[in-house]
Amino acid sequence: MFRKLTAFALFTVGIALLALPAQAASGTTSISINLPSFVMLYYRSSVTFLPSDATMTALIGEAANPADLGNIDLTAFTDDAAVDGDGSGYTGLTSVTATVSNFWAVRSLAPSGGLTEVSVAWSGGSTLTNPNSDTMALSNLETQASGGTWGASDTFTPTGLGPLTSATQGDVRFDVDLSNAATSGNYSGASILITALNI
Amino acid sequence: VSALALVCLPVTSPAPAEPERDLTASPAVQLNHLQLPATLTMEPIRSAELVPGGSMAVVFDGNHIPAAPIETQTSRRLPSLWRMEIDPVAPTAYLAQYELVSADGRVGGLSLVGGDAFIPVAVESIEPILSRGLDGGTRLEGGVSLHLSFAEVTRSGNYSGTLIVTLNRF
User: Which of A49, A128, B20, B54 has the most crowded CB, counting CB atoms within 10 A?
Assistant: First the structure.
């Protein structure tokens, strides 16, 4: 009996696939779902600057290290070779701009017409200190989304949740005062608070 | 995007002669009434579905965003979306077909209310089942699983559309 039923059922299927429906009924249901606003922030937990010798040479206004100051004619065996310079090369050390590209990235969903905003602020101090109590003061903290405008915050049209390559990435920059950094070594102690939200 | 399901009812007695049908008449009138809700609000997508790990902030290396933890797909299962009283002894095959049309007229997804965003939705048919009604009658029940993909979606809010259910009897 089972075989007969199976055979008939399969036969019915075969006919159904070939035949036009004898009868049909249809209906509609209006379906809706809510997709929430959402912000996902990717960030650097720490940044360590390790400026090279060439970078430090450029910071103090020299093209090369060692710096060849050229010949000087001395008329006496006790004359001054004048290698002490005039100090003009050091003026830039009070405001060295550090720019960190791709410091953060955001994937977000915002309501229609809304934007996502990323802001930066000092958190827990803006001074770097070394074990000798020498300091570097940090100031003028700014951020920008890729292709955006520098400021304490920047806004952009959300790019959604994916693909990953479409995430909005952003940069951070701030000024560093190296004029009081009299000793080499590790300076630390400043932190940046990054906030991302939909507005 | 459309989906379909076919169910065949086994024969338990000789099939009665099928009456002639006027195929130019509205077939929906001739078949038993198909019951399904006029509106259906699915459970909202929760943030926990998007970020199973729960963390909304992730450390990255500045160049390569971690593949985890955002999910860009989720599903909603609607197992008893429709039902229809049937004659259990008739030799019949039923074919359920589904089509989802967004509120702004695009096939295969849901569109944002008050915007132009669109969530593609794959409709997967759940195989219809036979059940017994309170009155002792036999009814056929079916439904769908909706697989929503919002990888390309940038806007939050309410998304809506119309699911068209067609049940064919052969």
Answer: A128
**Rounded to an integer, what distance in angstroms lies between the CA atom of residue A196 and that of residue A198?**
7
Identify the CA nearest to A112 among candidates B106, B125, B166, B104.
B104
Mind spelling out the 3-state secondary structure of chain B?
CEEEEEEECCCCCCCCCCCCCCCCCCHHHHCCCEECCCEEECCCCCHHHHCCCCCCEEECCCCCCCCCCCCCEEEEEEEEEEEEEECCCCCCEEEEEEEEEECCCCECEEEECCCCCEEEEEEEEEEEEEEECCCCCEEEEEEEEEEEECCCCCEEEEEEEEEEEEEEEC
Residues B108, B120 contacting (CB under 8 angstroms): yes
Higher model confidence: residue B41 or residue A62? B41
Tell if the CB–CB gap between A34 and B158 is shorter than 8 Å. Answer: yes
Whether the predicted pLDDT of B23 surpasses 80: no
- Cβ distance A8 to B84 less than 8 Å, yes or no, reads no
Number of Cβ pairs < 8 A linking chain A and chain B: 220
CA separation for the pair B146, B74 (Å, rounded): 8
Report the residue of chain B nearest A43, measured CA to CA: B59
Phi, psi of B96, rounded to the nearest 5 degrees: -100, 130
Rounded CA gap, B12 and B106, in Å?
44
Asked if residue A88 lies in contact with residue A61, where contact means CB atoms within 8 angstroms, the answer is yes
In chain A, the residue whose alpha carbon lies closest to the alpha carbon of B103 is: A30
Comparing alpha-carbon positions, the chain A residue that sits nearest to B148 is A33
ipTM of the complex: 0.77
Is the CB of A112 less than 8 angstroms away from the CB of B117? yes
Candidate ranges A62-76, B44-58, B87-101; pick with highest mean pLDDT: A62-76
Q: What is the tens place of the pLDDT at every residue in A40-57?
A: 898 888 889 998 999 888
Closest to A109 (Cα-Cα) out of A165, A162, A170: A162
- Provide the pLDDT for residue B11: 33
Cβ neighbours of residue A187 closer than 8 Å, sequence gap 6 or more: A128, A129, A130, A134, A135, A136, A181
